[in-house]
């Protein structure tokens, strides 16, 4: 299963979409995902421009650039289909007196999001769950090498019209081993268009052990159908990537919610 045909189809649908409506909550940026789903028959594309990761390990310094994509399709009711992957990646590796680079595509995932508490009538608290299956169809340097199953949940507390807090929990099962993530996020709106947040990620990686990352990001709404975002996380401790950062754009296509 390759992401490129899916992305092409999504872009064609986007061009053909007759009208824009008020943008829904996008999953980008930050840990977790929105606690709402798209209306039935509508589409959103969330695209990294790209993301960047820097990691030093075993005498090597790796820099990875990833154009990650998520296509979201509203199924009706509390359900949403997601297709995700990265059609373009670049790895730059230096160490032990050698240098190399690689370019290729990553694995593709298909997921189902359920948001029973995602409507505006849910009050101050809402939640959603997302299950994903990631297929091992990526190039060697950018894929898992085996099928991965993931299950995550996000809970959101709307403190007032300006502040909201979320808690994201996720487990990935790959090659018979589990990796866990727990990430609280604290967000604040600034006027009609700006949002900023702080984030902390506690990760237990099945291969690399425990990692902690902290940082934050901003998002800017354009009109009533698009969003730009930027984020950065820095490692706390000695394990995991030293820097993770990225830019992104999200666009919603469809009728009124």
SSE layout and pairing:
Elements: H1 3-16, E1 43-57, E2 60-76, E3 79-95, E4 98-104, E5 108-114, E6 125-135, E7 148-158, E8 163-174, E9 177-190, E10 194-205, E11 209-222, E12 226-236, E13 243-253
Antiparallel strand pairs: 1-2, 1-13, 2-3, 3-4, 3-5, 5-6, 6-7, 7-8, 8-9, 9-10, 10-11, 11-12, 12-13
Describe the structure in your own words.
By secondary structure, the protein is mainly β. The chain has a single domain, classed as Lipocalin. 5% of the residues lie in helices and 62% in strands. It has 1 helix and 13 strands; from the N terminus they run H-E-E-E-E-E-E-E-E-E-E-E-E-E. The chain has one helix at 3-16, and strands at residues 43-57, 60-76, 79-95, 98-104, 108-114, 125-135, 148-158, 163-174, 177-190, 194-205, 209-222, 226-236, 243-253. The longest helix is centred in the N-terminal third of the chain and has 14 residues, at 3-16. The model is unreliable at 1-22 and 118-122 (pLDDT under 50).
Key terms for this structure?
single chain, 257 residues, mainly beta, Lipocalin, 12-stranded antiparallel beta barrel, 13 strands, disordered N terminus
């Amino acid at each position: 299963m390759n992401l490129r045909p899916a992305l092409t189809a999504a872009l064609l649908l986007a061009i053909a979409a007759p009208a824009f409506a008020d943008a829904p909550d996008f999953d980008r940026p930050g840990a977790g995902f929105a606690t709402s789903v798209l209306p039935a028959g509508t589409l959103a594309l969330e695209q990294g421009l790209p993301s960047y990761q820097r990691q030093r390990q075993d005498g090597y310094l790796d820099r990875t650039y990833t154009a990650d994509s998520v296509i979201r399709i509203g199924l009706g009711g509390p359900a949403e289909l997601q297709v995700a992957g990265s059609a373009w990646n670049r790895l730059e590796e230096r160490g032990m007196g050698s240098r190399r680079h690689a370019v290729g595509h990553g694995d593709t995932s298909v997921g189902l999001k359920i948001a029973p508490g995602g409507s505006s009538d849910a009050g101050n608290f809402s939640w959603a769950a997302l299950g994903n299956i990631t297929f091992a169809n990526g190039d060697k340097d950018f894929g898992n090498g085996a099928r991965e199953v993931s299950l995550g949940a996000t809970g959101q507390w709307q403190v007032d019209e300006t502040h909201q807090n979320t808690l994201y929990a996720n487990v990935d099962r790959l090659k018979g081993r589990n990796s866990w993530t727990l990430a609280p996020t604290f967000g604040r709106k600034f006027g009609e268009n700006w949002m900023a947040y702080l984030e902390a990620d506690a990760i237990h990686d099945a291969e690399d052990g425990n990692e902690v990352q902290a940082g934050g990001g901003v998002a800017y709404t354009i009109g009533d159908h698009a969003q730009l975002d930027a984020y950065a996380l820095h490692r706390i401790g000695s394990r995991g990537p030293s820097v993770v950062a990225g830019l992104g754009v999200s666009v919603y296509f469809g009728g009124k919610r």
